[in-house]
Design a protein that fits this description.
The structure holds two protein chains of two kinds. By secondary structure, chain A is α/β, with parallel strands linked by helices. Chain A has nine helices and eight strands. Chain A has one domain: Rossmann fold (3-Layer(aba) Sandwich). Classes of the chains: A alpha/beta, B alpha+beta.
């Protein structure tokens, strides 16, 4: 009996990611979710700009490459013209929380019925380890060589907390992929985010705390430990919102339909 | 017997599989280089495998296939 094998929705090609980069794990979890819900045939993925720019090579479903940060806007267009298709974006923190902040906030405000997979690794990976909006206070990067100073560079953005204040967001959860139990929880969250879209509940976002061993200057194993010791205390895991946007009154501030 | 298969040419030698194996039977093969130029991970004692698939779950490059008897 096969206990574990490559999911069918994941193309049989090697990833271009650095050794130990957890993008590969999250790609696999998304593919497993597409398999499990049997939606690969009608799924449309939107690839971002950043390390995961080649995500369109790795999934067997239809994929579209968006301009930097604009994946939620492209996803909105696809979902509104093809409401029966399953539309998801896969974005990193530079794409979603920096150049694409406006698109991210307003896709939440509009409550588009799409799924967002957000990779938070506290750094810009592809461009060589610069400070990201999600870089931790005190964290050394190539553009914060003395460590991020909140007085100069401001505080990191907590994306799940921010989006959970918007009415159009149905589901926001933060997960991590640093241990096997956390990977299993991340898989459940991703499956739920797709199921919400099938149930037409509104915007679902799953923030995944991920690693960047190359730009953090750590071994892959030490990077997973750093997620546990430094990232999770600052970005607490858990469900920030789980509701049903359909239940909101569309034309009145009063409750009920 | 439980069986673990490594697609060696996909492996980047990050060693995460070896770090989570509860039976400590996975190691990087320091004698060998794969197509990409990494030391690939492999299993040292197949008979001790309990097919928990923890190695495959944490592998970022989907190298590992696990079969249970």
């Amino acid at each position: 009996m096969v206990v574990f094998d490559r999911p069918k929705s994941l193309s049989p090609v090697p990833f271009h990611y650095c050794p130990g980069c957890t993008h590969g794990i999250v790609h696999r979890l998304v593919a497993e979710a597409l398999d499990e819900l049997d939606i690969c045939g009608k799924a449309v993925g939107i690839a971002p700009v950043g390390c995961s720019v080649f995500a369109y090579n790795y999934f067997e479903c239809d994929m579209i490459e968006a301009a930097h940060g604009r994946a939620p806007a492209v996803a909105t267009g696809v979902k509104r013209t093809h409401p029966d298709n399953i539309v998801f974006t896969y974005q990193g923190d530079g794409d979603l929380a920096a150049i694409g902040t406006a698109e991210t906030v307003h896709v939440g405000a509009r409550g588009e019925n799409i799924t967002i997979i957000f990779i938070n690794n506290c750094i810009y990976g592809m461009t060589g380890g610069q400070m990201a909006p999600t870089t931790l206070p005190g964290q050394v990067t190539t553009t914060s060589p003395y460590g991020r100073d909140r007085r100069i560079q401001g505080s990191p953005i907590h994306v799940c907390e921010m989006l959970s204040t918007l009415d159009g967001v149905a589901y926001a959860e933060r997960v991590a992929v640093n241990t096997v139990p956390n990977i299993k929880k991340a898989k459940k969250a991703i499956v739920k985010a797709f199921q919400n879209q099938i149930d037409k509940k509104g915007l679902s976002i799953v923030e995944v705390l991920s690693t960047c061993p190359t730009n953090w200057g750590m071994t892959p194993e030490a990077a997973l430990k750093w997620v546990e010791t430094d990232m999770i205390p600052f970005y607490p895991l858990g469900v920030y919102k789980d509701t049903d946007v359909k239940l909101l009154n569309p034309t009145s501030t009063k409750e009920g339909n | 017997m439980n069986k673990v298969t490594f697609s060696e040419d996909l492996c980047k030698g990050c060693g995460l599989c070896a770090s989570v194996c509860p039976k400590k039977i996975i190691a990087l093969d320091r004698e060998k280089l794969n197509k990409k130029g990494y030391h690939p991970a492999g299993i040292t004692d197949q008979s001790k495998c309990i097919a928990c698939a923890m190695c495959a779950t944490i592998c970022p490059d989907v190298v590992i296939k696990v079969e249970k008897e």
